[in-house]
Amino acid sequence: MTVPVSAGGPVRRLLSKLNPGRHLVRGIPLGWLILFFLVPFLVVLKISFAETAIAIPPYTSLLEWDADEAYLTLQLNLGNFLYLLEDSLYIDAYLSSIRIAGISTILALLVGFPMAYVIARARASTRTLLLALVILPFWTSFLLRVYSWMALLKQNGPVNDLLMLFGFIDAPIQLLQTDFAVFVGIVYTYLPFMILPLYSTLEKMDMTLLEAASDLGAKPWQSFFLITVPLAMPGIIAGCMLVFIPAVGEYVIPALLGGSDTLMIGRVLWDEFTLNRDWPMASAVAIVMLLFLVLPIMFLRNRSDRLED
Amino acid sequence: MSASKPASTPDLPIWKQADAKPFVQFEAVTKQFGDFTAVNRISLDIYRGELFCLLGGSGSGKSTLLRMLAGFEGVTSGRILIDGVDMSGVPPWERPVNMMFQSYALFPHLTVENNVAFGLRREGVPDAEVRARVAQMLDMVQLGHLGKRKPSQLSGGQRQRVALARALVKRPKLLLLDEPLGALDKKLREETQFELINIQEELGVTFIVVTHDQEEAMTLATRIGVMNHGEIVQIGEPHEIYEYPNSRFVAQFIGSVNMLEGTIVEDEPAHVRVACPDIGGSMYVAHGINCAPDQEVHIALRPEKIMISAEPPAQSENVCSGIIADIAYMGGLSVFRVRLDSGKELRVTQPNIERDMGARFTWNDRVYLYWGVTTAVILTA
Fold first, then answer.
1. Cβ–Cβ gap B93/A219 under 8 Å
2. Are residues B55 and B201 in the same domain?
3. What's the Cα-to-Cα distance from B368 to each of B315, B319, B322, rounded to whole Å?
4. Residue B27 C-alpha, separation from nearest chain A C-alpha, in angstroms
5. A215 touching B, CB under 8 A?
6. Is B98 within 8 Å of B38 (Cβ atoms)?
7. With contacts defined as CB-CB under 8 Å, which chain A residues touch B101?
8. H-helix or E-strand containing B100?
9. Three-state secondary structure along B12-52?
10. ipTM score
11. Cβ–Cβ of B105/A217 closer than 8 Å?
12. Position A308 confidence tier, pLDDT thresholds 50, 70, 90
C-alpha cells in the first residue's frame, strides 16, 4: 500500500481498518476450514445427489451439457435419502450409534470426572506428571491399542483369568464381540478428550467456594452437586461433545471389538463405500449423520451461551 | 480486674467481669504445617457480643486461627470451645459459625438472592421463610433491588455486602470475618466500618475479625489481640494497645512511634527516671515499672504527644532540641521530622488548630520538643 502514513488520523484509521496483519490472522484458519472442511463437505453433498455408475469415479455427474441444443440439465437424485428412510437398517444404525455413543459418553464422564478432579487438586509437580500420563497412550498407535484390548478381553485373556481367579465367574465369559467391549474401547480411547476440558475448568475453580458452601451448612456431596458440578458445566459440555461426536461415527472400535450385531453407522458407511461401491448412498449416510450431530450441538452451544449471560 | 471485687459489676465491659463466661475459648491451641508452627499454644477467651479483632502481619497466624475456628483446619494440639462445646471433630457444616471470606467467595453461578438463600436451604428452612429472611437481610445491607443479579454484575462494595448478608442470614452465634474491608477503597472502607459496627450491635452477634490494618482494628474492635509469629503478644481494648503497648513490637505495629534507647537511673513506685543520650538528657515518667537499676530499656514516644515550640519550655526534663529536617503539611496535620543534636530524628505531628499554623516553622529552624510526664512508655521487652 502506498498510503502516506504521515497524513494523520483518518489515514491511520483507514490503514488500521485495512490492517493486513489482522486479515492474515483471521484468513489462515478461515482458509483452512474452507479448504479442508467446506470443500470436501460440498463434494460429499454433491455425490449424495448422484447415482451409482460403473465408471471412474463410480457415480454420475449432476450437470449435463448438451452442446448441440445448448441445454444444461441439473439432475438431483433424492433416492438415496428416501432409501435411508425406507430401509430400517439405516435408522436402526443411526439410533444404535447414538445409543452406544451416548452410553460411552456418560461412562467416560463418570470415569473422567474423578480423574480430572484429582489432577486439578494435585500439587503442581504431581499435576504435570498426571497430565502427561493421561496423554501418554496417544504416543502409541490407536490401532495397536484397540488390538491389545482384543487380547485382554478374549476368552482366555487376562480379564477372564482375573475374574475366574477371584471367583466371580466359573467359566470364561464372552467379553469380546459384545457391546460391552465397544463401550470399553470407546471410553478408553476418548477418555483424554473428556479429562482435559474437565481438568481445565476444575483447575480454575476457586477452592474457597467449597469452603464457603460447607461453612453455610452444605455437606460435601451437596457442595459437589450444588457448586462443583454447575461450575464445571462448560467443561462437562465440551468433554461430552468431544467424546460423543467422534464416537457416533466410530468405525474401528465396533469393527474390531463389537459383535456382528453391533450396528453402528460408521460400519454401514464403510460397507457402502467398499463392499457395495455405492458412493452416493454412502455420501447420503454421511450427510444425514452430520445433520444428526450438528443440530444438537448447535442447540447445546446456544444453551451454554445463554448460561454465560 | 481484681478478684476481691463484687461478682456482678454490670457497668464494666464483659471481658472485665469476674463471673463472665467466655463464649469462644482457645485452650493452648497449636497448629503445625509440617515443620512450620503457624499457631503456637494460644489461649484466648472471647465473650458474647464482642467485636474482637485479631491483628497481625502476614504469616502471624491470624488467618489460621480463624480457619481453625471455622473448621477448615484441624488443631494440632489444644482445644477450641464455642459456647462451652468442644469443636474437635465437628465438621464446618455443623458448626454454629459463619464466615465472611476475604475474597467473598460468592457463588458465581447463583444470583444474589440464591447466594444468600444457600445456607437457609441447606437447613431445610421452608421456602416462604427463606424468601422473607433473604429479602429482609438484603434490605438491611441495602441491596434489596439487586437480588436478581449475578455477583459478576456487582461492584466490589456490593459484593462485600452480599457476602455479609449471606454470612448473617443464618443468624450464627459467631461471625468470622477475614479481612472484611481489605478489598474496598479507602472511602468505602471508612463508611463500611461504621456500618459493620451498627449491624453487629443491632444483631448482637459475636464478631471475630482478622485484619492486618491497625486502623481498621482500632475503629472496629471492642478488644484487639495483636499477633506475631503465631502468638498473641498483647490483648486489650484499642486505647490500651495504643497507649500502653507491652513490647516494642506492639508499639511499632500500632500507629507510628519514636523509639529511643535509655538506661534506668531511678525506679521509684511513683516514677521512673531514664538517662536518654538520644535526647541529651533524662526522661521522667510518672509511674513505676518493674525493672532493675541500670537496665537498658526502650522508650516509646507517640509523635502526636510531643509539643513543638521555637522558645525553650519551662520544664527541664522531657525536653530536647533540634533542627527541622523535614516538613509534611497534610492539611489537618503537619508532620515534622526533627534532627536532634544527638543525630537521632524524631517524628512530631501537630494538629493545625489555627489557620496558617502549618507555616510557623520552616526547614532548618531550631525548635524545642517537650512532652508531659505520662507520655512516654518504657518498654522492657
1. yes
2. yes
3. 11, 7, 7
4. 23
5. yes
6. no
7. 208, 211-212
8. strand B97-100
9. CCHHHCCCCCCCEEEEEEEEEECCEEEEEEEEEEECCCCEE
10. 0.83
11. no
12. low
Do both B97 and B243 map to the same domain? yes
Q: At B151, list the grid cell.
A: 455477583
Is residue B10 included in any domain, yes or no? no
DSSP codes of every residue in A95-132: HHHHHHHHHHHHHHHHHHHHHHHHHHHS-HHHHHHHHH
Using a CB-CB cut-off of 8 Å, the residues of chain A touching B97 are 215
Q: What is the pLDDT of residues B66-104, one digit of tens each?
A: 999 999 999 999 999 999 999 999 999 999 999 999 999
- What confidence tier does B1 reach under pLDDT thresholds 50, 70, 90? very low
pLDDT of B213 strictly over 70: yes
B3 domain-assigned: no
* Cβ pair B255, B214 in contact under 8 A: yes
Q: Which amino acid is it at A188?
A: Y
B180 and B264 both lie in a single domain: no
Distance from CA of A211 to the nearest CA of B (A): 7
CATH of the domain at B49: 3.40.50.300
Residues in a beta bridge with B312: none
The answer as to whether B318 is a domain residue is yes
B211 lies in the same domain as B272:
no
For B122, the closest of A211, A217, A230 (CB atoms) is: A217
CATH number, domain of B310, equals: 2.40.50.140
DSSP string, B219-286: HH-SEEEEEETTEEEEEE-HHHHHHS-SSHHHHHHSS--EEEEEEEEEE-SS-EEEEEGGGTEEEEES
DSSP lists the bridge partners of residue B79 as B27
Scan for cell 461471625, then name that residue: B175
Q: Does A229 touch chain B (CB under 8 A)?
A: no
Do B139 and B89 share a domain, yes or no?
A: yes
CB contact under 8 A, A230 and B109: yes
In this predicted structure, the answer to whether residue A177 has a pLDDT above a threshold of 80 is: yes
The answer on pLDDT for A306 being more than 90 is no
Distance from CA of B69 to the nearest CA of A (A): 11
d(C-alpha B274, C-alpha B286), whole Å:
11
What are chain A's domains? 5-74 (no CATH), 79-308 (1.10.3720.10)
Print the domain residue range for B283.
257-379
Higher-scoring residue by pLDDT: B203, B149: B149
Q: CA-to-CA distance for A87 and A108, rounded, in angstroms?
A: 32
Contact between B375 and B312 (Cβ < 8 Å): no
| B233 touching A (Cβ < 8 Å) | no
Is omega for the bond preceding A57 within 30 degrees of 0, making it cis?
yes
Cβ-Cβ contacts under 8 Å, B166 against chain A: 216
Last residue of a domain, one of B249, B270, B303: B249
Report d(CA A304, CA A240) in Å as an integer: 13
